[in-house]
Specification:
binds NADP nicotinamide-adenine-dinucleotide phosphate, 7-stranded mixed beta sheet, alpha/beta, globular, 6-stranded parallel beta sheet
Length: about 350
Amino acid sequence: MTRVGVLGATGYTGIELVRLLRKHPRVKITYLSSQSFAGKDLREVYPHTRHEDKLQPVDLDKVAEACDLVFTALPAGVSYEIGTVLAQKGLKVIDLGADFRLDNPSVYAKWYNKEIRYSDNLRRIYGLTELYREEIRNAKVVGNPGCYPTSVLLGLAPLLKSDYWNGTVVIVDAKSGVSGAGRTSKTEYAFSEINEAVKPYKVVSHRHRPEMEQELSKLANRPVRVVFTPQLVPMTRGILSSIYLSEVNASLKELLNLYKDFYRDEYFVHVLPEGAYPSTKWVQGSNHVFISLVLDERTGTLVILSAIDNLVKGASGQAVQNMNVLFGFDEREGLDVEPIYP
Ligand SMILES: NC(=O)c1ccc[n+]([C@@H]2O[C@H](COP(=O)([O-])OP(=O)(O)OC[C@H]3O[C@@H](n4cnc5c(N)ncnc54)[C@H](OP(=O)(O)O)[C@@H]3O)[C@@H](O)[C@H]2O)c1
């Protein structure tokens, strides 16, 4: 059995990792950390978890002794030192935050107010499994993608790798459930602020914008810019991204063929037939992604809709998928669950 630790087990992505890892046939959880609840049992924080699990503070020597792999489900800025030290001690690290996602340290410093410098032997890779599977196999540290970027990059990858679009600006309007903000007690996420409301935030200035631009530019092999409007909607889980591109040089049939071909062997990515639109209900609790394409021939605009569960494919599910790749397990192991419906 592979021994895994979850640092930040009391957060939303941490407890989602615990849920998925408990059902994984090839791993055993050997370390769970919390800062505020260290010394308590996980059941005292989450009574629905029926296992006896002591929560411990992050002690790097103890983590290194107890684990073969750690998931760092910690706030941005906290994982960088922890992940670097643990990788140097020989562990595999999958970080769910942003500390290992951005190629350019000055872009990271600008958006996360912290100086970082990746050591040369870190073998760090951006962990969008469907795009970087081969590189992930040999990585030491995986920077698991952000939730919005996962939905947008999977929605755009086939098109940007093709010759059907030569533009440089993509417009993204994305709606997210409130768990995307983590288990925080900030007023702006209180029930009475969110319920019966749709609330834009950080319009054109969200931290996921540079991450999307980094990866889209690599896919297209030219600089691509994103106009990004994230919005909170009154649901717990889920992201629906609506992506708009003008001047696409292909028919809908050609585009659908391109997408179906690109994702032909991908178990978790589903391209919907013409006229079908994805719903966040279809992915609640599951690692699946639903994508649909709509071509407005009148204006020459392509609309791409992409639905994921922010806590599963957008975070902990993709992290488990990456672990499966890193350790040579079947990619579906621990993840082959149906969504909760309705
Ligand atoms: N929520 C999402 O949908 C989502 C999706 C993709 C990626 N992410 C990223 O994943 C990471 C975790 O997100 P989350 O939503 O799970 O956050 P969260 O619910 O706020 O949980 C944060 C966790 O980190 C621990 N922690 C906080 N500060 C710490 C410190 N200084 N040292 C050690 N542990 C500390 C907390 O422990 P205690 O509270 O027990 O002290 C808690 O377990 C973030 O970087 C986030 O951006 C989140």
